[in-house]
Specification:
TIM Barrel; alpha/beta; two-stranded antiparallel sheet; 11% strand; 17 helices; binds flavin mononucleotide; 8-stranded parallel beta sheet; 384 residues
C-alpha cells in the first residue's frame, strides 16, 4: 500500500461516519497538544535556548527552498525506500531521540509507545539514553523495525561501555552519540519554573537498571542518591581524542549527532564514524546559530556521499521532509511533532502523525512527478 493511500482511508472512514479525531496539520496539533499536556512537560518540550530565535529559524528556513513540479512523468508509484548501513527502510522518515518521551503518555510508558508505533509503521526511532523504561523493555516492542540507541556518553567510561553493550544485546541496530548536550542549554521557560525532569528523578531507568551505575550508587534506591549520582556522571564533554575509544565500543553503525560544520563532518568520517547527523537539537541547546537546514548543504558537500547524512530540526510536515531529502539528506527526523502527537493521542495518535506525514510527502511526490528520491533532489531550488 502506498503511503498516499492514507488520505482515502481518512475520507472513506468519514463517509462511514467516522471523522478522524487527530489533527491534520501542525498548527492544530501543537495547539491541541499544548492544551492537553501537563504544563511542566509542555514547557520542556516546547521551549528552547535563549529567546528561541534559532528554534524559530529552524522552521522558517524551509520557506527558503521550493519544490518545482514536473509534469507528464506519470509518477503513479513512488519509491521512497532508503538503503543505509546495509538496511532497507520503507521511507526516509525517522523519529529523533527525545529524552522525555517516556513521560508523554498517561501511564509513563511513552518510550514503549514509541516503539509500538515504530513497529506498526516501519518508521524507525532513535531512543534516548533518558528513558522511563529500560532500553531492553523498549526494544522488545520494536517488532521488525530497526531501532537505534542514542547515547549520552557518561563521564564514567565503564558506564558508557555498559550502555552500548546492553543496546547491542537488546538488538538495536546503531549507536547515535549526541555531542551537543553534555550540559543543558540556557532554557528560560524551564529556568523560570525550575523545571528539569532528570533532577526530579524522571527518565533515569537506563541508569538505575545498569550494573555499573548500581555499583556507583552502592545499590541505593534512595532517589536523592540516584539523582546525585546521575548528575555527577551525566555530561562528558567529548573531544576528538575520545573518538577512537567510542569507535572501539561497538561494531554497530556509529552515528554522530550534532555535527553542523563541514570540517567536523570530514574529521569524524576520517575517524571512522558511519553516519553524520546534522542537527542543532531543535534550537534547545545553543541559541544564536543558523538553522540546521542552512548548515545542511555544506555538511553534505563535505561528506560527499561517503556515509549517510541524517537531518533534523524544524521538520513540521511532509513537505519539509521532501525538501530536506531534496537538499540531499539520506533520512529525516521528526522531533517535537511526534511528542505532541503521542501526548495527544497515545500510540494511535502517533501512528496517525507518522502516516499523515508520510502521506503528505508521498502525495507531494506524486503530484510533482517525482517517482523516487533522486527525482526530488533534481527539482528543489532556492526561493528568491
Ligand atoms: C523535549 C525534547 C527532548 C529531547 N531529548 C533529546 C535527547 O534525549 N537526545 C538527543 O539526542 N536529542 C534530544 N532532543 C533533540 C531531538 O533529537 C531533535 O534534535 C529536535 O527535537 C529537532 O528539533 P525539532 O523538534 O524542533 O524539529 C530532544 C528534543 C526535545 C524537543
Amino acid at each position: 500500500m502506498a503511503f498516499a493511500d492514507y488520505q482515502y482511508e481518512i475520507y472513506f472512514s468519514a463517509l462511514a461516519g467516522r471523522i478522524s479525531d487527530f489533527p491534520m496539520d501542525y498548527e492544530t496539533l501543537e495547539r491541541r497538544a499544548s492544551a492537553a499536556m501537563d504544563p511542566s512537560l509542555l514547557s520542556y518540550v516546547a521551549g528552547g535556548a535563549g529567546d528561541e530565535s534559532t528554534q524559530r529559524r529552524n522552521v522558517k528556513a524551509f520557506d527558503n527552498w521550493g519544490l518545482v513540479p514536473r509534469m507528464l512523468v506519470g509518477a503513479t508509484e513512488r519509491d521512497l525506500t532508503v538503503e543505509a548501513w546495509g538496511m532497507s527502510f520503507p521511507s526516509p522518515l525517522f523519529m529523533a531521540p527525545v529524552g522525555v518521551v517516556g513521560l508523554a503518555t498517561g501511564d509513563r510508558h511513552g518510550d514503549i509507545a514509541v516503539a509500538q508505533a515504530s513497529a506498526a509503521t516501519g518508521v524507525p526511532s532513535h531512543f534516548s539514553t533518558l528513558m522511563e523504561d529500560s532500553l531492553e523493555d523498549v526494544a522488545a516492542n520494536l517488532g521488525d523495525t530497526p531501532g537505534f540507541f542514542q547515547l549520552y556518553t557518561p563521564k564514567n567510561r565503564d558506564l558508557a561501555a555498559s550502555f552500548v553493550e546492553r543496546a547491542e544485546k537488546a538488538g538495536y541496530k546503531g549507536i547515535t552519540v549526541t555531542l551537543d548536550t553534555w550540559v543543558p542549554g540556557w532554557r528560560p521557560r524551564d529556568l523560570a519554573t525550575g523545571n528539569f525532569p532528570q533532577l526530579r528523578g524522571h527518565v533515569l531507568k537506563n541508569y538505575t537498571t545498569d550494573p555499573v551505575f548500581q555499583e556507583l550508587t552502592g545499590g541505593s534506591e534512595d532517589p536523592q542518591v540516584i539523582v546525585g549520582t546521575w548528575a555527577s556522571v551525566f555530561g562528558n564533554s567529548l573531544t576528538w581524542e575520545d573518538l577512537d575509544w567510542l569507535r572501539s565500543l561497538t561494531k554497530l553503525p556509529l552515528i554522530l549527532k550534532g555535527i553542523t560544520h563541514p570540517d567536523d563532518a570530514n574529521r569524524a568520517i576520517d575517524a571512522g564514524v558511519d553516519g553524520i547527523y546534522c542537527s542543532n537539537h531543535g534550537g534547545r541547546q545553543a541559541n544564536g546559530g543558523l538553522s540546521s537546514l542552512e548548515m545542511l548543504p555544506s555538511v553534505l558537500e563535505s561528506v560527499d556521499n561517503r556515509v549517510p547524512v541524517l537531518f533534523d530540526s524544524g521538520i513540521r510536515s511532509g513537505s519539509d521532509v521532501v525538501k530536506a531529502i531534496g537538499l540531499g539528506a539520506t533520512m529525516v527526523g521528526l522531533g517535537r511533532p511526534y511528542v505532541y502527537a503521542l501526548s495527544l493521542g497515545g500510540v494511535p495518535g502517533l501512528v496517525h502523525q507518522l502516516r499523515a506525514t508520510l502521506a503528505e510527502a508521498d502525495l507531494l511526490m506524486a503530484i510533482n512527478g517525482y517517482p523516487n528520491l533522486a527525482a526530488v533532489r533534481e527539482n528543489v531550488q532556492p526561493a528568491n
